[in-house]
Design brief:
The protein starts with about 25 loop residues before the first helix and ends with a helix. The protein is elongated, with a radius of gyration of 30 Å. The strands form two sheets. Strands 5-4-1-2-3-7-6-14 form an eight-stranded antiparallel beta sheet. By secondary structure, the protein is of the alpha+beta class. It is built from 17 helices and 14 strands.
């Protein structure tokens, strides 16, 4: 899985420590503020509201001009000038603008480390022109560009050797310098062209073989591969997903083994490759302990399907360093392709060229000697992202990491005995509910930590905590009292995690929830660790902006 970039952002909450003595506002600026206020008063403002507005503007001016921003002075001056241009003599708005832009510019400086000098300068210049020096938009664009750059770097093409691929990438880089979106599109076109060429070569080779020998041609072999796949698999739909299930025999009964992501309490829909349909109940279902697979026994299936035997360990090892056939739905079409099986690693096989995620889950890897499945292709479990808890974009980072598409499939070996455990429907419902709650807690914490209390009120999980401390902070307090309230706030968030972390046992999670629930369980433990460290260090590293504002 491609690693998404995580940015180390220096929080502007530390600015108060860098403040100088408050400056007195110049008379001419105060006069301008009063003039703006009088104009507002003419539109219906009361004298009290007008006076309060003037006082807030003066305080904001003093705050802006008493703060040492952790960026070069020329950048500070430029941002201040832009703030004055956008919000003339409205210093409360200017203060928010300056802080946001300064934080974003710090992020831009950190992102710079991920690019070569010439590369960054060219991209940065273009982004400045496109976004009119809005550093917030520039930082977001740089993150997206880096993601595209990494995707280009990891891009692989079935059937293309490493040297040719490297040359191809170099050519598209010269054709579209620093434009990784265009480079990615160009590589995808090369992938389609290679498919066409390989198909043409296959036809020519098959014809040559037919003319010179009576040995089965490649075309005949692939026809056998397709026939085997069609006879022994079902197209399945469940949990708003589509994949392929394979039929085998267990204890002399027809059994359907399918990707765990399809599991639905309501059952799954099935159809033969010729279009005949059936509904399959999952009331009696089994979950694999050592693979993301589930199983149910088939009864009264209205159409014929032929069970298949899986390859033995000896048959699998006979495939090492030889071609195997990967066959499954690539989009809406069945696509067989030959790949070299290079090695076996733990419970998975490895092919010389990775198997692309564009194949549906349940795609098979068949031996070209026995036409038995040596592996079932499934999307690998996502790894736990390394999040920067101090970033004011923590929620966006979390969403980006969890939504990142896994580019390659994993081939789970079929020769390894699978330990099946029966699914208890009540336990399944509890785990589904726990997964939903834990996911909501994690996203709520990501919005709240280094974010804002107002964001925390939008989630049912943190609404009561956020609302409570919003009211607490309405009262003026000295810094020692604020620290006491903040420790209480951190303790409340830690307690929010205590119950789900104590109730969920990773080893008992069913296969359909193992990735999602397991991932969010790991994230929750990460949040718990950070909150405990915050309490131990007695710092304001994870504080929402309302707390920081009151320091």
């Amino acid at each position: 899985m491609k690693k998404t970039i995580f940015i180390l952002t220096l929080s502007l909450s530390t600015l108060c420590a860098n403040s100088i003595f408050a400056q007195e506002i110049p008379a001419d600026i105060k006069t301008k503020i009063v003039e703006v206020a009088k104009a507002k008063a003419k539109k219906g403002w009361s004298a009290e509201k007008t006076e309060a507005w003037i006082e807030r503007q003066v305080e904001a001016w003093e705050s802006i001009n008493s703060t040492k921003f952790p960026i070069p002075q020329k950048d500070t001056d430029s941002i201040k000038a832009e703030a004055q241009k956008n919000h003339p003599y409205h210093y409360t708005k200017q203060e928010t603008f300056i802080i946001e832009q300064s934080e974003a510019l710090i992020e831009v400086y950190e992102l710079k480390k991920n690019f070569e000098k010439d590369e960054f300068e060219a991209i940065y210049k273009k982004l400045c022109e496109e976004n009119k020096n809005n550093y917030k938009l520039i930082a977001e664009s740089l993150v997206n560009i880096y993601d595209l750059k990494e995707e280009v770097k990891q891009f692989a093409i079935d059937g293309m050797d490493a040297t040719t691929l490297a040359i191809t990438k170099k050519v598209v880089a010269q054709q579209f310098p620093f434009d990784y979106n265009q480079q990615l599109e160009a590589l995808k076109k090369q992938e389609k062209m290679l498919d066409t060429v390989q198909d043409a070569k296959s036809v020519v080779e098959a014809q040559k073989q037919k003319e010179t020998t009576k040995t089965a041609s490649k075309t005949e072999i692939m026809a056998k591969v397709e026939d085997t796949f069609k006879k022994s698999t079902l197209i399945l739909s469940g949990n708003n997903k589509t994949a392929t299930g394979i039929v085998t025999k267990i204890n002399n009964q027809l059994a359907l083994i399918f990707p765990a992501v399809l599991y639905s309490i309501d059952g799954i829909s099935a159809s033969s490759l010729s279009g005949e349909e059936a509904k399959i109940s999952l009331k009696k279902c089994y979950s694999a302990k050592n693979a993301p697979l589930m199983l149910t026994f088939l009864e009264d299936l209205p159409f014929k399907v032929e069970p298949i035997n899986f390859a033995t360990n000896e048959e699998l090892r006979d495939c090492i360093s030889n071609d195997v056939a990967v066959i499954g739905y690539f989009g809406e079409m069945i696509r067989p392709v030959n790949l070299k099986l290079s090695k076996i690693v733990d419970d998975e096989i490895r092919t010389q060229t990775p198997i692309l995620h564009s194949y549906n889950e349940g795609t098979l890897v068949l031996s070209l000697k026995t036409f038995k499945p040596v592996a079932i292709c499934l999307k690998p479990e996502k790894s736990v992202p390394q999040l920067n808890m101090t970033s004011n974009r923590l929620k966006n980072e979390l969403e980006r990491a969890l939504n990142k598409e896994v580019r390659y499939m994993s081939g789970f070996r079929t020769d390894i005995p699978i330990k099946w455990v029966p699914v208890n429907l009540q336990n399944m419902k509890k785990q589904i509910k726990a997964a939903e709650q834990l996911k909501e807690i994690n996203f709520a914490l990501a919005s709240l930590i280094s974010g804002s209390l107002s964001e925390g009120t939008k989630s049912q999980m943190t609404a009561s905590i956020a609302t409570k401390y919003q009211k607490v902070l309405e009262t003026r307090m000295d810094i020692s009292k604020i620290k006491v309230e903040y420790r209480s706030f951190v303790s409340a968030l830690t307690n929010l995690l205590r119950r789900p972390l104590s109730q969920i046992k990773t080893n008992d999670v069913y296969a359909n929830l193992r990735n999602d629930l397991g991932l969010h369980l790991a994230l929750a433990k990460m949040f718990e660790t950070e909150l405990k460290n915050e309490m131990r260090k007695n710092s304001f590293t994870l504080a929402p902006k309302e707390f920081k504002k009151n320091l």
